[in-house]
Design goal:
43% of the residues lie in helices and 17% in strands. α1 packs across α10.
Length: 265
């Protein structure tokens, strides 16, 4: 089993969109995927053609002492996903009181689903501006933690300030080399976007993925149609970017697994 955890540096960087489209790109590479939303906004489902009036999700089942797997759905492209669920104020208060316990339980139970190497779990977390200690079990069990950033001044400022506790994130993940930064919404026609990508490449070095996701109107079109970019526009720049990202994830984890086998030879 391979587990990729995706988290935004801040709100608005596009981590939800990245999660959905990476999942679909891996699916196109014949990987068995299950995508799980741990963000309380419950927006990931909108990329999987789920009825916007359907408030079902794993958190609602935990609230009612029921099995989370009953909240599993399948998109028209036959991709499995588990939404967070839409909670009212009293439900959200109860969830927050048990958040760390329930996420740890969910992490453990997800670890028993699909143990073969072709099974991929893509897990979407709330942005780093939120407390990540509740996600400690998910983060520690991850094979890769992708931190989504934008090539612009605010992302750069947050990376170099104390507003985002990267020390805590590294401690929760356990292995610093599992954390990778991913540039989203890159605009090559913008001098500012070009400059900040160059600066980020210089400062983040090997922790920055070699793949950058371009800003593409296809992404907006896909969200409007409650689906993914490949379904909306299979020959777009965005679709090519996500294919490249999926291929990087597969080859990176394949090489990591080979390195670990070599340690025992």
């Amino acid at each position: 089993m391979n587990r990729i955890v995706i988290v935004g540096l801040k709100g608005g960087v596009g981590s939800t969109t990245v999660t959905a489209n990476l999942s679909h790109a891996l699916h196109l590479l014949s990987k068995e995927t299950i995508t799980v939303d741990l963000a309380e906004l419950n927006l990931l489902r909108l990329h999987f053609t789920m009825d916007i009036n359907n408030d079902d999700g794993w958190a609602k089942y935990f609230l009612n002492n029921k099995c989370w797997s009953n909240a599993g759905y399948e998109s028209p492209q036959r991709m499995r996903f588990v939404p967070f669920g839409t909670l009212n104020s009293s439900e959200l208060e109860k969830y927050c009181a048990h958040k760390e316990e329930w996420i740890a339980k969910l992490s453990g139970e997800l670890s028993t689903v699909g143990m073969d190497a072709e099974h991929w779990q893509i897990i979407h977390l709330q942005n780093l501006e939120h407390n990540q200690r509740a996600n400690r079990e998910i983060l520690h069990s991850a094979d890769i933690v992708l931190v989504v950033i934008n090539p612009e001044p605010v992302s750069y400022y947050l990376i170099n300030s104390n507003h985002v506790n990267f020390g805590e994130l590294k401690g929760l993940v356990g292995e610093e080399n599992k954390i990778k930064f991913l540039i989203n919404n890159y605009q090559p026609e913008s001098e500012v976007s070009q400059d900040f990508r160059l600066v980020l490449q210089k400062e983040l070095t090997s922790t920055l993925l070699p793949v950058s996701l371009h800003r593409d109107t296809t992404v907006i079109d896909s969200i409007a149609n409650l689906t993914n970019v490949h379904t909306t526009s299979p020959h777009s720049q965005a679709d090519r970017d996500y294919q490249s990202l999926a291929f990087w994830c597969v080859t990176h984890l394949y090489s990591r697994s080979n390195d670990k086998r070599g340690e025992y030879v």
